[in-house]
User: What shape does this take?
Amino acid sequence: MNNINSHIAEYLDYYLNLPNPPQYAVLLRGDWGSGKSFFSKNYIANNPSHKYLTISLYGITAFKEIEDSFFQQIHPILGSKAFKLGSKLLTGVVKGAFKIDLDGDKKGSDASATVTIPEFVTNFDKSAENRVLVFDDLERCNIKLTDLLGYVNQYVENYGLKVILVANENEIIQKSTENGVKDVSEYARIKEKLIGKSFDVQSDIDTALGVFIGEVNGQPSEKVMLKYRHIIRSTYDIANYNNLRHLKQSVLDFARFYEFLPQDLEKTAGLLEHIISLFFAVSIEIKKGDIQADDIRKIFLLDYLTRGKNDEPTITQTLNAKYPVFGLYHQPFDHQFLRDFFKNGTVNKASLATSISYSSYFADNNKPTWVKLWYFDLLEDADFIKYSEELWNNITNKKIDDKYLLLHIVGIFLNLSGLGLIDKKPEDIVAFSEANLAELEKTGKLLLKKHEKINTSAAYMLEFQGKTNPKFRDFVSKFTDCISNAQDADWPTKAQELLKVLDTNDSLFIMRLTLGNSEDHWYFDIPILTYIAPDEFVTSYLKLKNSRKREFYSSLKARYDSKHFLKELEPEAAWWKTVIEKLELSLASFAGKVTGHLIKAAIADIKNFIKYFEPTGVTPS
Assistant: This one.
């Protein structure tokens, strides 16, 4: 084992091969995630000639849990759940209170531990001979430390077994310090008695990385990571984060992310290396806790390269200085895919492929003109002039028929104008763009799709350029106002369509207004009822059969019961009060009839759910 921890392995070889009981334990120590558990497991796997009993003490509250684990390892059949169900007499135990002389000064006991010695230890010459006991996560055990070490001492001193302890000793000392000087001194005395040799385990990144990649179990990503493991190693070194446990998690995360990537990426020089470097840098920083998934956007945006308060560097500047991959002007795909993956565990595979195809790694032939110009610094001078003139002609002639494409082009031209690469004045760019925007509004192309939210950050897998330009921000403001106005102008039409649905299918009407999983739930967060005249609504309601009237409002109550969209639906509160007034006026026509009874029940139902909008009601979550 020729690596950074080879001296530890050599000593363990010596220790475990001693012909006589050494009467002491060996401690392998290291901080959380440093690889001490990995080292011990790897050593055990590479030295099968010895018989081991291993246990993680994490969360262990009683000695019996340790004994049960050892018993099951020695007797897998007797210790199985099936056998336990069939027999109550699994492990005969001998209980005893041991007064432990930790100092060996024969002047009495130094600690007391009530322990349960399992039958296999009592008869260790039969069942536990030559067993090596490995106790991991010593600092995470819920048994009092002095009692635990006294318990372990029974195996070492009374029964001559060889024991390896794996622990974060710094955490043990810290906890002991918090408990007082007495605990610190007790730990020191017990350690001196029990532990004969201690080693600091160093992170063995090369060995660990090979093992972690191997655990991907033959997936396509395994070969990729093995081929580019030097990039993973380099990124890990740059991170300066000594945590193999999190490195393993990053490897497993990439194995999943790789499933969403197009499988021909290696055909494009440098692309896969770029993605691997980017992924592991983001993954490690998230696991360190320095950034969250929602912060990924800031790393990708050049607009964020500004000083923070008190002239302190922003997280973007810090990471750009730390990782070369973040300093690259062009990235292989839009930031949203890493955000979605680390936040939600999945990404849209087709959209990711499109985003990659738009990147600077691929030839321009199949890209739209605006995408080619988005990557203007990759163009030859003649092509730049050709593409910029083509787009300018389109915008001056109001030929841009997509609202987000218009936003892209405005940002691109304002950016190029600011760089002095085109002779267009910002005022002219904005004026022609506003004329094109008016044309989109006139032709109904500003209307949002169902549940679509206005996005002024990015579209079609690319960020909008020029976002720090005041004129771009002004245009965005007008852009959003025009969309809102167009949407507001369209709601009455949508409301009348919805009212017609009530006349023909009241169940579908309720589905349109409530939240659900199907595509029929359109307006659950939109106060569309306010665009319906209350008297027209009441007229349509009264036309329903009585069998449907009773269920109508109790079903519609689900629109407000979830409380998630009360803020958005608040304008409907006043509308419902008017509906109540209209229903109360109709009662005179149905006095003494079933319909009148149902109208009263409907009024009660409405009053119940409009209480949510009152100041004393439930606050939206």
Residues 369-487 form one domain. The beta strands are 25-29, 51-56, 93-100, 111-118, 131-136, 162-167, 195-200, 458-459, 462-463. The CA atoms of residues 184 and 487 lie 70 Å apart.
